[in-house]
Amino acid sequence: MTGPDRFFCADAARARGDAFAGTAPFGSVWVLIEYRRAWPANGFDGLDLDPETKTLVFAAARANRARILLVRRHGRRRPERGGRWAVLHHEGSGALRQRWGTWHRDRDLAQIVTALDSPGEPGLAPVVLVCAHGLHDACCAVRGRPVGEALSARRPDLVWECTHVGGDRFAANVVVVPDGVYYGDLDPRSAVTVIEDHLADRIRADHLRGYTTLRPPQQVAVAGVLRRFGPAGRHDYAVTATAAVDDGWRVSVSGRAPHARLLDVEVRARRTPARRLTCRGPANSSAVVYDVTSVRER
Does residue 221 fall inside a structural domain? Predict the structure, then answer.
């Protein structure tokens, strides 16, 4: 059904002007598993894998607070099982590490358990993930696959389509890992610009949902700084303190050269009216939105 009466959550969110800054889920470890067959609605949980191996991988990921995503290259699916897997870490120091392997049989995926406890290799190019999980939410396919095609044409070695990353109504969603940066509300043209800028270490506020190493008020504060002072590198601004104030937070942000400045950013939260927020979820619910009320230099 694609008629005019069908509800698309991303269309509704754009019509309302839903704010997406501060909506990146917290996390610093990702497990990627190439799976070329159809993806179940619940991703890895729904795969028909060897139960023992699946339990081991799931338990190790949970112990490391890692998110498991199924991935595939854009284009025609191949029916065979197997492919590549990866474990990606964004360490507290800011170091970015990756470990890659291959699997042919289900039990080969047990290598992921060991990889989660190993440091991984630094200096590798980031991975660009485009959510195209149509069975989870129609907008992820309708908006995500054209973005996956456009980015794959430019960076075929870096780009993968992936299962649900959160925030269906902000489709198309793109996540760069292990950098830990979420972008949303993209189309093919804007996605190419955003990712080329990202790869050049120029992050802009326009489509930024947030950094996964920060909490929502902190994400919004950094986005507010980027909007005020212009694009900057992933680690050019650091959150040095967060304090609760009367009706929100005061987030202290420190910049390094060439963005050397000390800033206090005031952030407030508000709750939206109840709305239908996803294609598959018929019930209305409200969302928390964070607003920057001031950015002051010290």
Answer: no
Query: Is 241 part of any domain?
Result: no
Residues 153-184 have pLDDT tens digits of 999 999 999 999 999 999 999 999 999 999 99
The tens digit of pLDDT for each residue in 185-231 reads 999 999 999 999 999 999 999 999 999 999 999 999 999 999 999 99
Distant-in-sequence, close-in-space partners of 23: CB < 8 Å, separation ≥ 6: 166, 167, 170, 182, 184, 209, 210, 216, 219
> Nearest 5 degrees, angle CA 174-CA 62-CA 126?
30
Q: Any idea what the CATH number is for the domain that residue 184 is in? A: 3.40.30.10
Domain enclosing residue 190, as ranges: 1-214
Residues 252 and 269: their CA atoms lie apart, in Å, by: 17
Would residue 289 count as lying in a domain? no
pTM over 0.90: yes
Q: How far apart are CA 159 and CA 72, in angstroms?
A: 9
Q: Give CA–CA dist 102/49, Å, rounded.
A: 16
